[in-house]
Amino acid sequence: MVHGAAPGHGSIQGVTSDFLAACRREPTSRTPVWFMRQAGRSLPEYRKVRAGTAMLDACATPELVIEVTLQPVRRHHVDAAIFFSDIVVPLRAVGVDVEIKPGVGPVIAKPIRQASDLDGLRALTAEDVPYITEAVTGLVRELGDVPLIGFAGAPFTLASYLVEGGPSKHHEKTKALMRSEPALWHALCDRLADISLEFLRVQVGAGASAVQLFDSWAGALSRADYLEFVAPHSTKILRGLGDSGVPRIHFGVGTGHMLKDFADAGADVVGVDWRTPLDVASRQLGPQIAVQGNLDPALLFASPEVVEREVTRILDEGRDAPGHIFNLGHGVLPDTDPDVITRVVDLVHERSAR
Predict the structure, then answer these.
(1) What is the pLDDT of residues 151-178, one digit of tens each?
(2) Which of 52, 86, 135, 262 is the most exposed place for a label (fewest CB within 10 A)?
(3) What is the rounded CA–CA span in Å between residue 310 and residue 338?
(4) Does domain 10-352 have CATH number 3.20.20.210?
């Protein structure tokens, strides 16, 4: 059993931790810390255990999911584990022909471009993902007092992959369909919202203590387009989990112009990327929303003095927020030195201990 988090006040489903306390804007013994993509390519033990196994196959193998999810908790002593999976896992589970190509990302064999293409996008049920239930149940048992964060992709980011056929710098096909075929767009996003909501419900039902909704590409939109074409669908997911009792984290990159909208969708915590200072973000969000972030992932390659100074600055900026969870402003980069990540965890705990 893994024990890496100092006891705090927040609790849910038998788990007590500073992470959950911060999500709920309650007092903590120190600032909790975890990292997006903490379970992944930056760890040599991950590369070893994943060798020869395709990403989506790994995500459907419970014993592998459990091992990879636990690795950063053992090594770094972070205050929460993030479930090892991928945002396209539920799409594959409902029959979408998707492959994660190394160095490229998710590639869709048959992109969605017209109404008839929606016929292949059916609803997700728990029976479609028994390996998720098995992995989450096993992880909750292994993690002990360390909370497990479940996650899913938000409709806009998933829709972008489905419409573009893969990753896109400019999302031109996505934006064109969104504006030219609004009925088709909303029908697509409504189905994706149902899929992601059920994917999160499965994780929560199996024991996840919190969830994070990733809308990685929403920052490519204007605020007006986000409110009209995206917010209703993300709201369906986050508010659909309102009766679950678990904290809901909402994160996107480049979303400083619509942080309040991210909160209004039904979030308890808003993830902030490195472009917006946490104190500025917290003032925008108000006293009912905790913040998460927001060290620039690239700064983990800087000198120890720079890293220490930036960690201290972010802790200072987050101190007056109603709740602060230390994280990066996006995911850990693959070539990051794991020892630097461990040192950041130690620094956060040392500098914030009360």
Answers:
(1) 999 999 999 999 999 999 999 999 999 9
(2) 52
(3) 18
(4) yes
